[in-house]
């Protein structure tokens, strides 16, 4: 399946096993960026690299670096049809990650990582984490 050009590292000739999404700090469709710099997501890149070296087809979508909004990020993820979706869950991004996750198709299970997954999932879910 042909992947979005904004997804880095994926082999677009086969099924995408995992898509790692760096959530934006805010919904840039509603509140445009005022700068053109961002920090790299090294932890996510390390995990993606390890998975790729183990034979999995993985990609990274850096929604923050590309200045994507919530809808556009979810549309790209859903269009890629990954087997799994991984998102960062840090204090500045947990609300955006939850909003993106709410728009994903149920065919792609998702997981979150970072320093805050349990408190944030508990606070944003009606089911205990």
UniProtKB/TrEMBL annotation:
It comes from the Bacteria. The lineage of its organism: Bacteria, Bacillati, Actinomycetota, Actinomycetes, Kitasatosporales. This is B12-binding domain-containing protein.
